[in-house]
Amino acid sequence: MSNTIAVSRDDSDLKIAVINDNHLWQFFYQSPTSPSHIDNIYLGRIAKKTPTFIWVDIGLDAPAALRPSPSNEKLIEGQKVLVQVCQDVLDDKAAKYEQKTKQLRVTTSIHLAGRYCIYHPHHQKLSFSDKLENRLKEELSHTLKNQQYLTVRSLCTFLKDTSELLKEIDHLHAEWNRLNSLPLTSKPGLIKSGLTDFEKLLRDLSPMHQVIFDDVAILAKAKEFLQQNYPSLLPKLRQASLKELPLFESLDIAESWENLYSPYISLPSGGNLYIEETACVTTIDVNSTKAGAESNRLAAVLILTQIRFRKLSGNIIIDFIRTPRKQRMELLQTFEQLLNQENTQNLKVMGWSHLGFLELQGPRYQDSLPKQLSKSCMSCDGSGRVR
Length: 387
Description:
Layout: E1 4-10, E2 13-20, E3 23-30, E4 41-49, E5 54-57, E6 64-66, E7 80-87, H1 93-98, E8 105-107, E9 112-113, E10 117-119, E11 126-128, H2 134-143, E12 150-152, H3 163-180, E13 189-192, H4 197-203, E14 210-213, H5 216-229, E15 237-239, H6 247-250, H7 254-258, E16 264-266, E17 272-277, E18 282-287, H8 293-310, E19 315-319, H9 325-341, E20 348-352, E21 358-361, H10 369-372, E22 375-376, E23 385-386
Parallel strand pairs: 1-14, 6-8, 11-12, 14-15, 18-19
Antiparallel strand pairs: 1-2, 2-3, 4-5, 4-7, 4-13, 5-6, 7-8, 9-10, 10-12, 16-17, 17-18, 19-21, 20-21, 22-23
Helix pairs in contact: 8-9
């Protein structure tokens, strides 16, 4: 199964694996007990303004945090405003010891994402994803010359005509007009839910992929979602046969899923990676039985794979095997090339630190997958985690 998305139900949770060209590419996890708020749109009320944050009542138990910026500096306390969640509540051990709760982060820069484009009502321009070919950009620039507020996304495939794209643009424009015309007299609360990771995978489904389910009820929900939004993708869904169950075992990816729970990952050249997440930084230590540039190169490939599998983000420091300066610069170039091939976490290589660590930095919107799959251990006062 060269291009497959496997969806497996574990009690009420979903385990999702994306396989590209017979290689495991990415994992997703979705639990109804800890849903993500990312992309949810709320009608909010400015509760309090401070130099650090603007606190917005969105109808939940705690206010959301909005960073001050030139676009929202004129907001006053008591004013109603539309906001969109841009960062979930992170599982930070420091919050436990400081005896305070981290809050959702929101933004007033609303966006509505579809299969083909993203509608930005506050950005008056037409732009294109860097992943689109220049030829396609030129064609679309001519077709969409009168359009604004849009970013055309990376497209799996474009139809011979642009009718679906234009239809989606009209739909997103109408949806924004509906949201923007809601009466501000309403109480703060949710007015539009964002898509889950599972729904985003279905929305962005490539024509090359098929989606296999081991649960009839989840398959029915997926069909209902596509029937309402993208009915042409329905033939891509199917139920797993008896020979394909258990699903992850038959696809030979169960071990990779179990490895998400372990901080140790074996290196093919001998030795291992040790991955540890803290409140402010993720550290990755390379321990190899063989010194040299080749061991570091193999470790770099595995590190990027684990960053993608585990959805690691924020500040990341990597302690490679010590090598001469020339080899370190070659390793830096190799790492940057590998990262640029498919940077799913939007990380940037910051270079070597004075202590000899390679530093990465990127936005942190959600907890990593290992944190989503575990919780703080109460027996040891939260210093460890349990499945």
